[in-house]
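Long-time lurker, first post. I've been practising inverse folding by hand and with some scripts of my own, and I keep getting stuck on stretches where the structure tokens seem ambiguous. Below is the full token string for one chain I'm working on. Before anyone asks, I'm not after the true native sequence, just a reasonable design that respects the backbone. If someone could post their per-position residues I'd love to compare against what I wrote down in my notebook.
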């Protein structure tokens, strides 16, 4: 029995109920179907399944699974897209979305402010297979207009960039891209499904690392691609069926459980991030504080128009560079040092030497990734404790 999820339901309700498939036992919590294969009553039924399998019929776990299908349907309902495909990791989602869309000779325009692995896919993998890549300043609409060409197939960017929290004008870029027939692919991790307006503003394909806020408790890898049914089932699904980047049933079950309280967690984390950004603003040992909804952010006005809230991430630059930043990080007692984000635990990382360390020096400088930069993912601890932890650690700088 499948929940048909009326569109009138609010996102928080969809995050709990959308796409539920109950077995004959009527279980309350979603069932975890830990099976790689499925049995057919007859040889004729097997033939028919391979020829005509629908969304409620399954062949092999790499092709689809009831638990994974529940997660896909729930994500589509939450994001407002027609369909979704769950992947083994966030990078599998980015890679699969791009590889399934592109071929040798195609052209991609991408924002320069991207996670290091996303840049690797563009500059190393796709370029190696003959895709023409143009990297631009994603906040510069004139740069988009100049770079987009009649043969451009994809425009790709992070709606809020990692790690310097640049905010891209989704609608303006989408309008320019659609004018030349390009597909707009966005990585929406920092915006989260709670604050996402990517579809409404013109994005065609939306990808998430579900490892981040959707799991939210540091347990499992996962990713998801959201889009039209035509793209998901006609383009993305065949690619993943044959290359093997599908999500496991166990991870899909964990993600389903994470979705149930995603909205509550993200809103609490955002409230904490807002308070931390305000507490750090103007601190004498910081050269800048970056938070989209705080005055002084380079795209502050756009962030107010495009996002209901500033999100869960804060970035700040510590005067004194790498050594000072390391002293601050090492002095933290509550906030953990890790390269993950979106977790219930607050996490800090120095992107210059970790997540973005492979970038050339000039590229780091252009992106504002300095040796003193710290990316902070705000968790669910008491915000007063986190502020005290940060201020005490800054004394060590």
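-- Answer (accepted) --
I ran through it position by position. Result:
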């Amino acid at each position: 029995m499948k929940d048909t999820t009326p569109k009138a339901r609010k996102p928080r309700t969809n995050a709990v109920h959308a796409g539920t498939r109950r077995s004959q036992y009527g279980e309350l919590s979603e069932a975890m179907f830990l099976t790689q294969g499925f049995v057919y009553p007859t040889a004729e039924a097997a033939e028919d399944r391979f020829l005509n399998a629908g969304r409620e019929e399954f062949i092999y776990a790499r092709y689809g699974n009831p638990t994974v299908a529940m997660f896909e349907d729930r994500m589509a309902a939450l994001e407002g897209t027609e369909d979704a495909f769950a992947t083994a990791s966030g990078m599998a989602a980015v890679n699969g979305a791009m590889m399934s869309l592109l071929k040798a000779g195609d052209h991609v325009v991408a924002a320069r402010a991207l996670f290091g692995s996303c840049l690797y896919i563009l500059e190393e993998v796709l370029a190696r297979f003959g895709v023409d890549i143009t990297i631009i300043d994603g906040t510069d609409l004139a740069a988009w207009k100049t770079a987009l060409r009649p043969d451009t197939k994809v425009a790709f960017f992070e709606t809020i960039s990692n790690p310097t929290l640049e905010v891209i004008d989704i609608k303006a870029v989408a309008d320019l891209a659609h004018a030349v027939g390009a597909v707009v692919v966005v990585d929406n991790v920092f915006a989260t499904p709670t604050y996402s307006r990517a579809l409404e503003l013109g994005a065609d394909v939306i990808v998430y690392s579900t490892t981040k806020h959707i799991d939210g408790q540091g347990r499992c890898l996962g990713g998801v691609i959201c889009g039209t049914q035509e793209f998901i089932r006609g383009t993305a699904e065949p690619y993943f069926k044959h290359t093997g980047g599908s999500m496991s049933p166990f991870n899909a079950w964990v993600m389903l459980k994470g979705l149930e309280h995603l909205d509550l967690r993200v809103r609490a984390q955002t409230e904490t991030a807002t308070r931390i950004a305000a507490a750090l603003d103007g601190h004498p040992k910081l050269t800048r504080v970056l938070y989209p909804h705080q005055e002084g952010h380079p795209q502050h006005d756009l962030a107010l128009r495009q996002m209901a809230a500033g999100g869960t991430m804060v970035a700040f630059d510590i005067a004194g560079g790498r050594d000072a930043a390391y002293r601050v990080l090492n002095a933290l007692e509550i906030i953990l040092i890790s390269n993950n984000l979106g977790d219930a635990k607050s996490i800090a990382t120095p992107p210059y030497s970790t997540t973005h360390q492979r970038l050339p020096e000039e590229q780091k400088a252009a992106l504002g990734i300095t040796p003193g930069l710290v990316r902070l993912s705000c968790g669910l601890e008491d915000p007063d404790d986190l502020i005290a932890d940060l201020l005490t650690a800054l004394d060590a700088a």
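A couple of notes from the structure itself: Residues 263-395 form a domain with the Aspartate Aminotransferase, domain 1 fold (CATH 3.90.1150.10). The mean pLDDT is 95. Happy to go over any region you disagree with.
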